[in-house]
Specification:
Layout: E1 4-16, E2 22-29, E3 34-35, E4 37-40, H1 47-59, E5 61-78, E6 82-98, E7 107-113, H2 115-125, H3 131-140
Parallel strand pairs: 1-6
Antiparallel strand pairs: 1-2, 1-4, 2-3, 2-7, 5-6
Helix pairs in contact: 2-3
Pfam family, one: NUDIX
GO biological process, one term: AMP biosynthetic process
Keywords: Hydrolase
């Protein structure tokens, strides 16, 4: 029997701050861990649309996809369905407009950080499988960590 499949999408969201400096968006999830905006694909959506919708819903920012970063694949145990094969598609996303507003039902907070702060927070309190995503996103923005 085939495992149930689940697709999520999200992004490494960045902007240029008022001081002209690059800023990276990070979320604190409901478990108090540092992570990236992401969520499950809904019927009729493309993966890109999912990423942008989830970023808007979770953080209040309207984004534009620049390029794909990475796909993380893993299997987790669901109480009802058993093993679920999950794919998370991450994109490099430029924040174009909006007001930073955490979706309090889903997350504890969201903020902008310098690339160095963002990498440090990911290292200290992020999910291990996001290390490569954050690093690759920063590399695409010309930041080597």
């Amino acid at each position: 029997m085939m495992n149930k499949k689940e697709i999520s999408a999200g992004g490494v969201v960045y902007r240029t701050g008022e001081d002209g400096q690059l800023q990276i968006q990070l979320i604190m999830d409901r478990y108090g861990k540092i992570t990236l905006a992401k969520g499950k694909m809904e019927d009729g959506e493309t993966i890109e649309q999912t990423a942008l919708r989830e970023i808007l819903e979770e953080t209040g920012m309207v984004g534009r996809i620049i390029e794909p970063i990475n796909i993380i694949a893993y299997t987790y145990q669901h109480a009802e369905f058993g093993p679920v094969d999950k794919e998370v598609h991450y994109y490099l996303v430029e924040a174009e407009s909006g007001d930073l507003q955490p979706q309090i039902e889903e997350i504890k907070g969201v903020d902008w950080y310098t690339p160095e702060e963002a990498w440090s927070k990911q290292q200290q309190n992020g999910y291990d499988n996001n290390d490569d995503v954050v690093r690759a996103g920063l590399n695409k923005l010309g930041v080597n960590v």
